[in-house]
Specification:
Blueprint: E1 5-14, E2 17-23, E3 33-34, E4 37-39, H1 46-58, E5 62-67, E6 72-73, E7 78-87, E8 100-106, H2 121-131
Parallel strand pairs: 1-7
Antiparallel strand pairs: 1-2, 1-4, 2-3, 2-8, 5-7, 6-7
Length: 132
């Protein structure tokens, strides 16, 4: 059995809104929306990987809050783990620096107004419980 590789995602919350990021690459994912994040590097703690990925992808300083219960399968051997997160005081506003071409803060009533990547939908549903 192949060892699973953890991909971390951030349910980045601000005032009840959730940050969604539109993929610009690879071509098969471009135009679909996801929770920002990325792969955990060997020897890296998942929470540290998420903080690093948010810095690299969005140019923000963030902190993890709570891990959402469960995990979600991605393309093998990847598995998605999601944390709620918040911007640290004094952080820059999120910008689409890497792999994304647009960001949106979505109110709970707007969550389903964007075409999420299918593998992110269960995690977004779980994150909604924290957004209200």
């Amino acid at each position: 059995m192949t060892e699973r590789i953890v991909v971390v995602g951030a349910a980045l919350l601000d005032g009840g809104r959730l940050l969604a990021a539109r993929r610009s690459a690879p071509p098969e994912l471009a135009g679909r929306w996801e929770l920002p994040g990325g792969k955990v590097e060997p020897g890296e703690l998942p929470e540290a990987a998420l903080v690093r990925e948010l810095r690299e992808e969005l140019g923000v300083e963030a902190e993890t809050v709570d891990r959402l219960p469960g995990s979600w399968p991605l393309k093998p051997p990847y598995e998605l783990w999601v944390w709620t997160a918040r911007l640290r005081p004094g952080s820059a506003a999120p910008q689409p620096l890497q792999d994304h071409d647009e960001l949106r803060w979505l109110d709970p009533s707007e969550i389903w107004s964007v075409p999420w990547l299918p593998q992110d939908v269960p995690a977004v549903r779980a994150a909604l419980a924290y957004a209200v």
